[in-house]
Design a protein that fits this description.
With about 550 residues, the chain is of the alpha/beta class. Helices cover about 30% and strands about 25% of the residues. Bound molecules: adenosine monophosphate (AMP).
Length: about 550
């Protein structure tokens, strides 16, 4: 017997309709490429997303055709989120930090037909348009008077001219909720990038789950600053959850430096911010020497790479901001776990609470996870056994776009490529990417642990730990360090600093000081490139 409830498809158009009707006056504030601050509302975004839908119809774009963006976080990008997906097309957010060759490859692979871009990326578009024969309309996200006359880009129109004369009413189509809504290519450190293809259903379910109190806890009373880019897994789904809950959205545009972010937080009374550790490092690096305080910021979600304990402590102890450590990946829409304390943890001493906050957290309802050993057997949740982390759930991919790479699942589970422990309370902690784990004398050393200790030293700005071939131990850890500007630190001092903070055999064999650590397009350290740079390196005798 079937239940007798209505079967309304879960569609992204429903989110923007809801936002307009129930909190149309909540603000959407954006720092623009032009440098000024633009103010809109959810009602304004809804209206203009319908104009986007008309503009796409005008190009005779079919259901599921791809519309690409090369854009910062801002209101026009948000309008495209809803206008493109709502009208049944697929929004393809391209990471502008990729190399032009990769962008051309990705746009062709996705078969993008329209490319909307912020003017910052004009040179990038000039470099790739000749190689992307399928793109038939270029849209610069600006006013008509900002459009350069001699760009050399064919079929180029300004966004405002493109949508400005379109009607503001539109009947969103209804279709199968499993239809594709947006896509995002993974960083692809090896081989060609592969795309996760999200659906209306997966996106909407993720939006519900992400908003929950023990997940991101978003509400109509929050002013939310997603610093995490809208080209990186849909800014962790915040645009959708924000439409659902009615929070004010504040977009940083291209200005991600500490000063700009701080000023925006204060000016827009941001209560909640989300980003990767490198961004927060810049913010804290600006605030400390200038003796600045937050007047409204209360919580921040940090994920994308492991959040160092020193950062959690700085936010918590120095600024009274609660850090929510989160873990996920492109293939997971992206949220998998988030770290919030349970009731009985509240009475624990601060250092015990800190040990929990450092973990990547508990699985969100909708995400099932397990760790498996080398023999494929599931490992116990004892907080000590570590193995390959696998996940399943309705917002996790079952295969990549166009079936690239074959079937990624093992018995229905998606292997994440992360190595983790899970404790008896269900708190998961990442120890490494499986390819970054250091194997020394048959034992594993967590590169994240070694890096966390290094960055807790006051002279260290950034640290990466890599395994180096060793004739006896197989591999030994070496820590590669970028010093803070003007700071003094010797190899011996840093190695001494490790004493008592980790097991003796896990202390790195050497310290290599560098000017910079190579970073990938999503703000993660590129250890593959770092290892290449250290090709000639020899461990000390
Ligand atoms: P991406 O698909 O580019 O978002 O990368 C996903 C990968 O980033 C994960 O598989 C992890 O290796 C890493 N990652 C994300 N969040 C965290 C976190 N909180 N701690 C450690 N690693 C993380």
């Amino acid at each position: 017997m079937l239940g007798l409830m209505q079967s309304q498809p879960l569609l992204i158009s429903g989110l923007i309709d809801h936002a307009e009707r129930h909190h149309g006056d909540a603000e959407v504030v954006s720092r623009r490429v032009e440098g000024d601050i633009h103010r809109s509302t959810w009602a304004g975004v809804a209206r203009r997303s319908r104009q986007v839908a008309h503009a796409l119809d005008g190009l005779n774009l079919l259901f599921s055709d791809r519309v690409a963006t090369l854009a910062w976080n801002g209101y026009r990008h948000l309008e495209l989120y809803f206008g493109v997906s709502g009208s049944g097309r697929v929004l393809h957010t391209i990471n502008p930090r990729l190399h032009a060759d990769q962008i051309a490859w990705i746009a062709n692979h996705a078969e993008d037909q329209v490319l909307c871009f912020d003017m910052t990326f004009l040179p990038l578009v000039q470099a790739v348009h000749g190689r992307c024969p399928m793109i038939r309309q270029y849209v610069a996200l600006c006013d008509p008077d900002k459009l350069p006359g001699d760009s050399g880009i064919p079929n180029l129109i300004s966004y405002e001219a493109w949508i400005g004369h379109q009607p503001t009413t539109y009947e969103w189509p209804s279709f199968d909720e499993n239809s594709a809504s947006s896509m995002c290519y993974t960083s692809g450190t090896t081989g060609n990038p592969k795309a996760a293809l999200y659906s209306h259903r997966s996106t909407t379910l993720h939006a519900y789950a992400a908003a929950l109190p023990d997940v991101m806890c978003l509400s109509a009373r929050d002013s939310v600053l997603p610093v995490v880019p809208m080209f990186h897994v849909n800014a962790w789904g915040i645009p959708y959850s924000a439409a659902l809950t009615g929070c004010k959205l504040v977009f940083p545009g291209p200005a991600m430096d500490g000063k700009s972010i701080y000023e925006l937080i204060e000016a827009e009374q941001v209560s909640y911010a989300a980003g990767v550790p490198t961004v927060w490092q810049m913010l804290l690096g600006h605030m400390k020497p200038n003796h600045l305080r937050f007047s409204t910021l209360r919580r921040t979600v940090i994920g994308g790479s492991a959040c160092p304990p020193a950062m959690i402590a700085a936010f918590n102890d120095d600024y009274g901001v609660e850090v929510l450590h989160a873990w996920g990946m492109t293939e997971m829409s992206p949220l998998g776990t988030l770290c919030t304390l349970k009731n009985r943890h509240l009475a624990l001493p601060e250092d015990e609470k800190m040990k929990i906050r450092l973990k990547q957290g508990r699985a969100i309802y909708g995400v099932d996870m397990k760790i498996v050993g080398e023999d494929g057997q599931e490992l116990p949740w004892d907080g000590k056994s570590y193995g390959d982390l696998s996940v399943k759930g309705p917002w996790i991919i079952r295969e990549y776009f166009k079936g690239e790479g074959g079937n990624p699942l093992v018995d229905g589970w998606f292997p994440t490529g992360d190595v983790a422990t899970i404790d008896a309370d269900g708190y998961m902690q990442i120890t490494d990417r499986s390819k970054d784990v250091i194997k020394s004398g048959g034992e594993w050393i967590s590169s994240i642990d070694i890096e966390n200790i290094a960055v807790s030293h006051p002279a260290v700005a950034m640290a990466a730990c890599v395994g180096m071939r060793h004739p006896k131990w197989d591999e030994r850890p070496v820590v590669v360090v970028v010093k803070k500007p003007g700071a003094q630190l010797s190899r011996e001092e840093l190695l001494q600093f490790y004493q008592g903070k980790t097991a003796k055999w896990q202390i790195p064999d050497d310290v290599v000081f560098v000017e910079a650590i190579p970073m990938g397009a999503t703000g993660k350290m590129l250890k593959t490139r770092l290892r290449e740079q250290l090709k000639e390196y020899k461990l000390p005798e």
